[in-house]
Amino acid sequence: MNLEEYKGVFVFAQQVDNELTPIAFELIGKGKDLAKDLNTDVTAVLIGSDVKSLADELAEYGADKVIVVDDPELKDYRTEPYAHALASVIKEYKPEIMLVGATAIGRDLGPRVSARVKTGLTADCTVLEIGEFKGVANQLLMTRPAFGGNTIATIACPNTRPQMATVRPGVMQKLEPVKGAKAEVIEYNPGFTPDNKYVEILKVVKEAKSAENIMDAKILVSGGRGVGSAENFKMLQDLADVLGGMVSCSRAVVENGWKPVDVQVGQTGKTVRPNLYFAIGISGAIQHVAGMEESDIIIAINKDEDAPIFDVADYGIVGDLNKIVPALTEALKAELN
Ligand code: FAD
Question: What Pfam families would the database entry show (predicted)?
């Protein structure tokens, strides 16, 4: 493999039902940083059926080029044709870096494509930067929690290209869109020969999701095991209602069946960065903190003054949440009315 042939930062621009997924914009945002350090540009790879019109939106969020693979076989996500499409783009255009979102689709697609093009992939990265590895400059340094989150590992891929990484939604920042920006659009179709390896989709059943997503909330009132029961979460909901926020939780709460997994914050939950994050009865395990430490202001309420959550909190209240939370809600009600 001649590494010199590989140039440019590519991102997989995930779309579902011909609507771009926010991770596509977040990856372009990060891609721009990396491309600047490497003095190159960012190419979004858009795969689907009748998706060409989405190229302008990718341009507005910063893509310099958009490679469109458009084919009826790509209407709904299926592993085989999508892996063929992305692996073919990599073989044809030889990117130096290929970023994929760690969504359900990206987690399926990324590793399969990396195996096809015989390179490595670092999954679930939280930090990506360009730096030196073993004396060689301009390497992609990919950082992620390892060994169950007990350590942080930085991984490089010095001998093969592209350097591939998946990134969790919400970790990287998208850029402010520039209205009317245009990208160079390149249409490419490697050809699809459906065979018995292709899964046949008989019916698509959409998951009934709560309309609101904790990743969009400006204020989150998050509860942990210390809240004590599903019923006690009503106390947190009252506080969230007064502030116009949403309730989220730690994994211990999901494991106890008090809240559904779609409101779990942390390494195996969602990454959030609200303006205000209440951590109530949450100890502050590294896997939880990984999902909320970027919040603008963190207020922790815990009866244990040595709880690690106080290390990341801007404000800390030591005491019994059963007393503090209702008192806080009443005080805010009086203040805000
Ligand atoms: P605890 O650690 O039990 O803390 C409860 C806290 O409540 C304590 O600090 C206690 O002092 C306080 N408390 C109790 N009663 C009161 C009271 N009356 N008033 C005030 N304070 C009180 N965790 C996540 O949250 N998100 C993840 O995504 C996640 N992913 C993980 C991935 C892996 C691979 C592993 C190994 C673990 C993961 N965890 C995750 C689990 C994590 O390690 C912790 O076990 C979990 O975060 C603990 O949840 P907690 O803080 O609610 O509970």
Answer: ETF (PF01012), ETF_alpha (PF00766)
For 229-249, write each residue's pLDDT tens digit: 999 999 999 999 999 999 999
The answer to whether residues 296 and 275 touch, using CB atoms and an 8 Å cutoff, is yes
User: Is 282 a pocket residue for ligand 1 (Cβ < 6 Å)?
Assistant: yes
Contact 264, 224 (CB under 8 A): no
DSSP 249: E
pTM: 0.74
Each residue's pLDDT tens digit, 137-188: 999 999 998 876 678 899 999 999 999 999 988 889 899 999 999 999 999 9
Q: State if residue 190 touches ligand 1 by the CB under 6 angstroms criterion.
A: no
What are the start-end ranges of the H helices in the chain? 22-38, 55-60, 79-93, 104-116, 233-243, 251-255, 286-289, 309-312, 321-336
| Centre of ligand 1 from the C-alpha of residue 289, in Å | 10
The best mutation among 144, 288, 301, 306 to test binding of ligand 1, ranked by most ligand atoms within 8 Å of the C-beta, falls on 288
ipTM: 0.99
Q: Is 52 within 8 Å of 171 (Cβ atoms)?
A: no
- Whose C-alpha lies nearest to ligand 1, atom 48? 252
Other Cβ atoms less than 10 A from the Cβ of 202: the count is 5
Interval between CA 253 and ligand 1 midpoint (Å) = 8
Between CA 292 and CA 297 the distance in angstroms is: 10
Cα–Cα distance measured from residue 45 to residue 25, given in angstroms and rounded to the nearest whole number: 12
